[in-house]
Amino acid sequence: MGKKVWFRAFVERLLMAQFDTRELVVDVDGDVPFHDETAACWVSIETRPALAVRVWGIAADGIRPTAAALREVNDLNQRAGLAKVTLGAGRVVVEVRLPADQVSARSLSRACGHVVGMADDVGVLFAGVFGGSTPFPAAVEAG
Fold it and tell me: Are 126 and 68 in contact (CB under 8 A)?
């Protein structure tokens, strides 16, 4: 079994345990989708240039790259220790990349939790301040 096949099987087994399922939902790109509140997230298994796992989420869509929005992205990146936030093609994306030798049940769980949590928070912020929307609507709390 080649390294790429073994690595994909290893990551998929970790994800099945994390999401408490016997069968993963995999999209047409081979990514595993998940979400919690407002962000749409995926786990991608990368094989080039090196084996890695990329956990990423779309926090907000329809965001114009104004100076204020880009300043906010820069501020978030200066404060974020684990994740990277980008704004491109109208999308705010939060991501964490784990090199293959750092992938474990714990690191993958932390990366998924960190990305979905940060993307939920950042998406609501960007949608509220800069327009646009989150992939899933924010729950409206009863007053």
Answer: no
DSSP-derived pairing of the beta strands 32-35 and 40-46: antiparallel
Contacts of 52 (CB under 8 A, 6+ apart): 45, 46, 97, 98, 99, 100, 103
pLDDT tens digits, one per residue of 104-118: 999 999 999 999 999
Average pLDDT over residues 41-63: 96
Exposure string of 98-131, with b = 16+ CB inside 10 Å and e = fewer, is bebeebeeeebeebbebbbbbbbbbbbbbbeebe
Which token pair is 36?
């919690």
Reduce the DSSP state of residue 78 to 3 states and report it.
helix
SS3 48: coil
What pTM does this model have? 0.92
d(CA 41, CA 54): 10
Structure tokens that stand for 17 in this block:
């345990």
Coil, strand or helix at 65: coil
